Amino acid sequence: MTARLPTTPSAPGVLRLVGATLVDGTGAAPLPDAEVELRDGVVVYAGPRRAPAPGVAVADLTGTWLLPGFIDTHVHLSMVPTAPEEQRARFPEEDVLEVAEVLRATLDAGVTTARDLDGLTPGYRNAVARGTVAGPRLHLAIAMLSPTGGHADPVRPNGSLPAWAVRPGMPAPGVVDTDDDVVRTVRTLLRTGADAIKVSTSGGVGSPTDDPDDVGITEEQVRLVVSLVGERGGRPVTAHALTDSAARSAVLGGASSIEHGYDLSDETIALMVERGTALVPTLSTLLRELDPATASAERLRHRAALHRRGIDSVRRAVAAGVPVALGTDAGVHPHGRNLAELARLVQVGLTPLEAVTAGTLQGARLLGLEARLGSVEAGKEADLVVSRVDPLVDIGALADAANVRAVLQSGRVVKDLNGLVPTAS
Ligand SMILES: [Zn+2]
User: Fold this and answer.
1) Does the pLDDT of residue 208 top 80, yes or no?
2) How far does the centroid of ligand 1 lie from the alpha carbon of residue 271, in Å?
3) Which residues have a beta carbon within 5 Å of ligand 1, which is an ion?
């Protein structure tokens, strides 16, 4: 598969980070008093602290924990909560600049790579790569595929479009019914620069005219999507799937991951283990609290039932050994608290160390970028997070961006609350 490494400007020179406890993302035990040497933005050494080298810039990170930059594999960075009236009155620049703020907040949270699964145009990816705007390296689905009236179809029953669905510079939403539609839409998305293809094999919550139990993209069409991307070097295909049959269609059709998966049967879980299909449970969105002041009693009841079913489904998948990657669906809920998902993952059975791996190396694998991202190892991009809390003791504390003291991307310091990291020499 030709996964493209989204670049970010790198820091030239040599820098040693010493004294921190290294949690490297591979699942290895933490290494106290570690040393990580960066050269031109790439890790060239990660291990026990060595004798000092004269003339090399050193950051003393004693008393902190050093982790890989996190990867959020499911975000919607262009989704910002705005009242419909206000949204209609906006100039496009207001939206663009607000997305820039969201990119910054996500980076400050410790996310150095993000996969946007509907909504963001490649213009943002290019701007981050160029260094025009600070943000996570971006992998994009651009738009998702569903049938007319399905999760990807924004049209209301009276034919009108909500303001959020008017997206200048974007190809049309991925509404597909026939196989010909699938072929044309997938090829258009690839031409526009998609790094992944997202399909909805079930209906959704929150789209205007569908229901989670609706059938979306069929197993045969998922297979068609996989074969189409195969003709162009391959890309991950991921499926929004809220029901068991939707997840099964996606797994059998060859999707590389399932988003949500709140109703998986043991049979589907066994198939996922057998095929190595990853699960991105987006627990931050499943477990978000609805406002009892505005949500109806029926909606609250329905939500409580979905919580129970979803947690049970994800717990069984984790226990069976399905690979899990961190994804939050940020945008559906506030941006900048992405690492709150780590504690949620511990709630469904991962150890804190496994949750860190789900948020780093597993995400890199899902994106096809594990050769360059996802762990602190020689040869990888120096995407790093400095935490002032021990993530293995209090993983919930990482939800608060104030505990993420510093963030590096390809060795470049993009956040440094305490001035911990000097310029490379
Ligand atoms: Zn989503």
Assistant:
1) no
2) 23
3) 329
